Amino acid sequence: MTGRIYLDYAATAPLLPEAREAMAPWLEREHGNPSSLYEEGRKAKEAIDAAREVVASALGCLFGEVVFTSSGTEACNLAMVGTAIANASDRRRYLVPASEHHSVVNTRPLVERLGCEWEGVNVDELARPDIHELFDAIGEDAFLVAAMHANNELGTVTDVAEVAELAHHLGAIVFCDAVQTFPWCMGERWRVDDLGADLVAVAAHKLGGPKGVGALYVRAGTPISPTALGGGQEREMRAGTENVAAIVGFAAALRAVADDLEFDAKRARARDAFRRALTEQETPPLHFTVEDEPCLPGHCHLGFEGVSAESLLILLDRTGVAASAGAACSSGSIEPSHVLLACGWGAEADKGVRFTFGAQTTVEAATEAARRVAEAARRIGST
């Protein structure tokens, strides 16, 4: 097999044909502003309403509890900062696991400027929050607890329902970043009631929809204020003219993925083939980060002894394999992952590499990718 092999579906997935087809009229012919009263505007508004019904149905929530955003990042920002703006109670503490996505942890300065207190929560070696520490930390002054459904780097799954039950018992609200798991997690379709969270962030491009659109589920009655002000769109929760084409594409991709009962199974077959093929190759000592714990079926996180992630990824790109590691900084080099540092990797945090597989990834491609990865690791390890 020749050609490039894309193994970074956790970063973004290719646009599904169903989404492309649904978006085409809104990119080519239809142009109305959804806030306008004339026919063109009404058609755009109806298209958004139809898409909102699809997302609400997938989430298992009310139509009015879905707020469209420009991305999963904006949805996370709105959840964290919007609640801080709206918070008029004596509860001021935000409890946030150290392994949350940058779109959550990087809101800390603004949340604190708004008068709230930020308290980091330790995580275990697989990026899951310490439930016992949470139990001890949540008190009468805790306002919000964050709990990521599945870690974007390791793919490990957190029992959000357990966190939510504990937090709600003590009077705190719960925010869940579910961008990596919507609408399937571990072969199961989940709904917001399964998580128990008051706020849930999702995004389109992880499941084959377009980039530039996400959504935030806001349980009715949850205290939250807009962070973007203007014309009062999205029920005055997120001002700005809606991206109709992207929203329509989001719904079309979601319908396609939600109806694919083999979605997670196909990802698992490719991932497992990659792991098997890699272990059969001669490589520097290899460590799979997640072995027997619940992990998303499309994730494989690993490290080779004596092989830096940056060197490996550069060589893999040259040989036609796209994968990822920690966050890219502005210089284009790779910083040690804040997730791996939180998990206790220390000096080894520069060695973790993430390979993520989509429903479109074939076993043949996964097996060939393993061969190229092994060859690259050998070349680096021998220098």
Fold and architecture overview:
By secondary structure, the protein is an alpha/beta fold. It folds into two domains: 17-258, Type I PLP-dependent aspartate aminotransferase-like (Major domain) (Aspartate Aminotransferase, domain 2); 262-381, Aspartate Aminotransferase, domain 1 (Alpha-Beta Complex), CATH 3.90.1150. The chain is 39% helix and 14% strand. It has helices at residues 17-28, 39-59, 72-86, 102-105, 108-113, 131-137, 160-169, 192-195, 233-236, 244-258, 263-279, 309-318, 338-342, 363-381, and strands at residues 5-6, 66-69, 93-97, 117-121, 142-146, 173-177, 184-185, 188-189, 199-203, 214-218, 286-288, 299-304, 321-322, 353-356. The strands form four sheets. Strands 2-10-9-6-5-3-4 form a seven-stranded mixed β-sheet, with helices on both faces. Strands 11-12-14 form a three-stranded antiparallel β-sheet. Strands 1-13 form a two-stranded parallel ribbon. The radius of gyration is 21 Å and the shape is globular. It starts with a strand and ends with a helix.
List the helices and strands and how they pair.
Elements lengths: L4 E2 L10 H12 L10 H21 L6 E4 L2 H15 L6 E5 L4 H4 L2 H6 L3 E5 L9 H7 L4 E5 L13 H10 L3 E5 L6 E2 L2 E2 L2 H4 L3 E5 L10 E5 L14 H4 L7 H15 L4 H17 L6 E3 L10 E6 L4 H10 L2 E2 L15 H5 L10 E4 L6 H19 L2
Parallel strand pairs: 1-13, 3-4, 3-5, 5-6, 6-9
Antiparallel strand pairs: 2-10, 7-8, 9-10, 11-12, 12-14
